[in-house]
Write a structure and sequence with these properties.
A hairpin with a 5-residue loop joins β2 and β3. This protein is 33% helix and 18% strand. Strands 2-3-6-7-8-9-10-11 form an eight-stranded mixed β-sheet. Strands 1-5-4 form a three-stranded mixed β-sheet, with no helix packed on it. It is α/β, with parallel strands linked by helices.
Amino acid sequence: MTVQFREIRAKTILSKSQISDYAVNPFVGCQHACVYCYAKFMKRFSGHKEAWGAFVDIKINAPELLAREVLKKKAGRVWISGVCDPYQPLERKYRLTRKCLEILVEHGWPVTVQTKSPLVLRDLDILKRAADIEVGFTITTADERMRKIFEPGAPPIAKRIEALEKLRAEGVKTFAMIAPLLPGAEGLPALLKKSAGHVLVDRLNYHYADAVYKKYGMQWAMKDSFFREKGEELRKTFEANGVPCQVLY
């Protein structure tokens, strides 16, 4: 897939979040091109006509804005990121997430990083000196074939597991987010028992991926019964392995 990149200057960077106190999104759009992604709604506000995954706007002034905004706003937990992966491939060049993370840590703000990319390991030096930080990896299935169908541009599952293990070994608080719960997720407790401090499980909440489920004859994995049964199965297995697990539905 050809991806269109555009450098932009944002007006603000520290936004209110329904998940955390604030969210920081250094990019609009995401190269991972996950077919189920709830953030596709951003197309309505960005003016992009390209398919999800085929465009990324880069907020080149994000660190500059954040350095000002942390001095003006009441401190609170910051989610990096809400509507994009903060460590998608462009971050290797632009280092916007790293610069924003450094500002938040220097000011003592609590941070939750959520990603699918082992590139987060590049910033271990910052993560390890943070007073209150956690890093979570979104890992929706243990089946690499499913990953390629639903998350075509995202890093392989094994690379995510390895990164999570490395973070925990370095003393960084970790979690895994199984959301949306995909076929093949039943293999995750065995893979995550040494790397995730806790696990969150959520169902498919949007219809962006309906055509993909139908294309591969997996409509059964869209049913309430699938999420109910698999969610409870995962919770029991994780907790049997000594890993706290919360099913969010």
